Fold this protein.
Amino acid sequence: MFQEAEIDPKLSQSEFKKIEAHLRVQLINEQYRHINLKDRALLILIAGIDGAGKGETINLLNDWMDPRHIHTVAFPDPNDEDRAYPPARRFWLKLPAKGEIGIVFGSGYTPLFKAAARKHQDIDALEQNIRFVRRLEANLVANGVQVIKLWFHLSREAQRARTEQLLSNPSTAWQVNKLDLKAQKKFESIRRAGQLIIEATDAAYSPWVIIPSADPQLRTVRTAQAILQALKTAAPKVPKFHDPARQSPLPPAAYPVAQLQQALTLSKAEYDAQILQLQNRLALAVRSKGFKKQALALVFEGADAAGKGGAIRRVTRAIDARQFDVMPVSAPTPAEMSRPYLWRFWGHVPRRGRVAIFDRSWYGRVLVERVEKLVSRASWVRAYDEINDFEKQMVEQNTIVLKFWLDVTPDEQLKRFKERTHSPFKQFKITDDDWRNRRKAKAYATAAKEMFAYTNTLEAPWHVLPANDKHYARVEVLKCIVKALEDAQR
Amino acid sequence: MFQEAEIDPKLSQSEFKKIEAHLRVQLINEQYRHINLKDRALLILIAGIDGAGKGETINLLNDWMDPRHIHTVAFPDPNDEDRAYPPARRFWLKLPAKGEIGIVFGSGYTPLFKAAARKHQDIDALEQNIRFVRRLEANLVANGVQVIKLWFHLSREAQRARTEQLLSNPSTAWQVNKLDLKAQKKFESIRRAGQLIIEATDAAYSPWVIIPSADPQLRTVRTAQAILQALKTAAPKVPKFHDPARQSPLPPAAYPVAQLQQALTLSKAEYDAQILQLQNRLALAVRSKGFKKQALALVFEGADAAGKGGAIRRVTRAIDARQFDVMPVSAPTPAEMSRPYLWRFWGHVPRRGRVAIFDRSWYGRVLVERVEKLVSRASWVRAYDEINDFEKQMVEQNTIVLKFWLDVTPDEQLKRFKERTHSPFKQFKITDDDWRNRRKAKAYATAAKEMFAYTNTLEAPWHVLPANDKHYARVEVLKCIVKALEDAQR
């Protein structure tokens, strides 16, 4: 695959001059079409042999296009703060909005290339990481981020010559860094790693393009052409992505809960006794030394008036207000709409040692957005896998993910709606939307049932709780949380 | 001021029960009025004697109110990443939106109290910091953030008794931390520091409330009442804030530039030679060791078609794309509208070692927002001071702030508009707005003139450049930047 690049092809000054002007006009015009259309974001991942002139080329393109709509980010080795979150978070948070171009140096591929360049590779870990990257890219592309990946390549001799030339002139020597010098020594292993990873991660929807880099003019032209092509072609389609190696989900959570279970109640006295004791255990668990290396994400879902807010308050009561965040989830903002839908939740993933509470969540995509037809069928079908991946990443970072569905029967819901309407203390809690949603109860029930079938994973199982009796439901929520925390600290 | 608190008043259980229910209903109702009205944010700063039960009280209030609209944040000692920016940045970025409540532990007051508690105080530094906090609060209140400050206080004996009682029970001992124990020893100096700072920073628009804290019930009631009162009263007015100790601005920058100067031009050959040499110096300066401890903020203002974009590209060409960010400034988003207008710029203040380029800027408030009457007269008049403070904070953090006004004459602007309309390569650059703005040229000129009178400070002076000749203007911009960087590294 590096054949062409390793003969170090060149473009003469006169050929370059002939192409340049036209290429620049095309590029700026296509960029503006992209800015005005706002139908997708373009993400350009940069990799390749150190010292091949990646930075130089990107700087030139920033100059050819409108740099106000290009965001170039580099991800150096993660620092302590980065490591307090799942590794992909910092990458997600920097995703460009629709109409923008993001250029990324040192993406999630950096550790991949490093691992593949090792003498003794951990093949299993490598394969797992490759699958992860493939899934992530499929997710991005399907959600409006077009991805192209550029590998800057040249022969060993050309790399050496280029480095020496830069070093020989004091006004260019700063362009050479330690990595470039190291690259000479390790050329063969870097080359092999590149080949392996490129082959494993090349896809029609997120292709690799090899850029011959020995000659600056050809390098520039090829890079510009690759970007131009990406901007010109229609947003790529992602084939339905099924990965047989993924952990299969558990059997669907039992929903709706049986009438027998809905009859479970707790007297005020029992409730008071149990809840205080559970809150005390919760208070100790989140303040323990062990929890400093963990995190807790709590998802509350359920129909309107199912008692989510009340349950959340029984949880937060036991936790220091400085240690938790509650995210009430409603309709996305314009900035959120212009990125993949998980983007806004990545900003609220809990840091190590903290508790994040979601009052409604990313499951909105397969509940309200599905039922209200706010997104295409393909979008919400795909979301099951995307959500499982998202939660898995939290779990792998030592986050305990607990998902609660508070289940009320339609009769009980109606009773609560009426109560709210008549209570001066609660009437702010009921809106016209609530009555409208109630009329769609059947569609919501179907959506919930499917959600339980596809997202009840080993890593993050659903807890479907009978919630006709508020006391019972609140105690069960606390029991689940306390058990999970205490188990994890054993 | 601590007299009442130090007799450690109590509320009996029966009195508390009488008040509690009513207080809670009032509090949740007022919170919802606040949420629905969205006319301001409420910021509650928490301070006081360690071990007075601050955390406990705030947790209880989170429980009494709707915690989904309360954001409690603690600011521990700044880490390396925090220190790469002006100190107030992390605080600004966490400001609550209108309709929300923010509770802040360890705000900008923490260093103030610490400094005031020292045996040998640096009175000048202390006074300067006090003035800074007062100005910051005036800024927040004037821009839609209501501020109240709670000082939790109790007598030395009560503090000791409370700490011992908590320590004696394993299920409450975790509530006591090292600071609480230290507070016993240093009680007198903490008390004195509190008194000094409270007296110096109490203001009608951001009042301190002393909360007697020996008795948990009275402490809770007083805290709830303070918040209730804040929610109930109309948003406070900030008196025109004039601080005679502030650095006076330089004389106004000369605007518009004289016809003689507008006649300055550079031939293509001169331009090419100079610009390359300047870009090379810029490239070296931003890659130097010295720059790792500095930062650069570039502001570009000027009429439509003044050549801001072109000048910016001549600058970015010399800088590695990974080292700069360009922020094109247009109308604020809803999230931005619901915070003080400087909030969105705080998110783009350059980190140490980086370059932030603003294509239009915070000066929008005193230009377009003034001319188009998007804000009240009081708002933009106040903004001059707020902007000077903002820039000063960057400068104090070793950031070089350079502000460029590219000045074109109306005739030249018209010529460029026509060119744009007819060029296939540039027509995306011209919109109906541009023609409309042109008709308001007089009002914009008045606004610009006043801006130069009030914001031409020693720390961040304006560079008003003749820009009828693009070559000349671009070279001047680069000269300014290179000179500032090279001077700073001497």
Summary: Chain A touches chain B through 50 residues (CB under 8 Å). Chain A has a mean pLDDT of 91.
